[in-house]
Here is the input.
Amino acid sequence: MSKLPPKPAQKTRIQHQNEQLILEAALAVFSAYGYRGTTVDQIAAKAGLSKPNLLYYFRRKEDIYVAVLEHTLTEWLAPLRLLDREKDPIEELSAYISAKLELSWRNPAASRLFANEILHGAPHIEKYLKGALKELVDEKASVITHWVKEGRMRPVAPHHLIFAIWAVTQHYADFAPQVEALLGPHLDHATANQAAIQILVQGLKPAESH
Amino acid sequence: MSKLPPKPAQKTRIQHQNEQLILEAALAVFSAYGYRGTTVDQIAAKAGLSKPNLLYYFRRKEDIYVAVLEHTLTEWLAPLRLLDREKDPIEELSAYISAKLELSWRNPAASRLFANEILHGAPHIEKYLKGALKELVDEKASVITHWVKEGRMRPVAPHHLIFAIWAVTQHYADFAPQVEALLGPHLDHATANQAAIQILVQGLKPAESH
DNA sequence: TCTGGTCTTGACCATTTGATCAAGAATGAA
DNA sequence: TTCATTCTTGATCAAATGGTCAAGACCAGA
Here is the structure.
């Protein structure tokens, strides 16, 4: 919650740099071991700082966690904002799936951090889920409903469609060890991308379109 | 790994009963707080035993965890075995999705325990993933390929289809706080079930079938 | 160079927690 | 009832861990 760094609203060069180091290290460690499984020492070591020095920037372990979590949420949700009701639903949803998959490949740690938080009851982001997130999702759900009404896609429960897209795309990050164990060396981003789009979107094309 | 309970292969009535209590309590606590977030005291309290007494049945905390995890895997995978290559693919896959969803509603703790384990690198079940699980999944993937070859369903990457089904169905257990926050009181099992089947399976119907 | 604020750290503390153990209580077969 | 085995627990320990603090090093503007 409180960032600590002393009085001045103005950040020092060193402050900026070290906070960045800490956030990057914390993301890696928290996402790998969970909140309770992570020690302040681990984060400090990964960031190349001493433990007291790290605690100079973030007074409590929880402050680091919250900072990393909030820092991640924005990026993670950005693609959803792009859904445009004026454009073609199939193309829009396909693009959204691709964007989410790209995030999973590029930053799996962020996905896992988020998954872990929710898996354990989302104690730090309850307000966010019921506030900003719900607002955005409800809006995009209405876009889907709009598409359905216009006959541009088959009827579907919009919220559940969004859940399905999230579930499938984040699965490749969150369950990576399982995916790799089962696909072996055959794991290919392009193939996964194509399969995900086909599975999730094929059935939504309006009846007359093929 | 090692179960401890002394020499006799024969289990006492009390042994059987207390081990059961412990496994149930451990599933609840581990799935809620993760491995590191769980204390032996918590499990003992939930099971109604003293800590030393609990450690009489399972020597180490990790032994309890492994026992619960293995105990869960079998049940969790059972529905997949039922996929029958001789029957209709759409009906078979729909039934599989329903069965998996039913598990998520009935035993979300098991789903979360499993998700947490994989999320953190699957350190305890690596062999299982690459062994028994891979074997089963490869076999069922070949069933899907068989269906495709016979033209009974559209071409699809079989492993990715299985991933998608897992992802969507388990999402309702693993991300329950998010689902509830976004659906509010509108969360309805039947609706979710219908939506999941439609989204995942609709696009797989062969072209001429509608 | 001087100086006030910023940054860094070794030493330390209190608490939590996994695990042990000896001693006693309960159990059940003969 | 007897008694060997199984079961239970209060007391205790060592290690891990989040967090503090005082003292010193460093930095940048005047």
Remarks:
- The two ends of chain A are 53 Å apart (CA to CA).
- The domain at 13-65 of chain A is CATH 1.10.10.60 (Arc Repressor Mutant, subunit A).
- DSSP finds ten helices and no strands in chain A.
- Chain A touches chain B through 59 residues (CB under 8 Å).
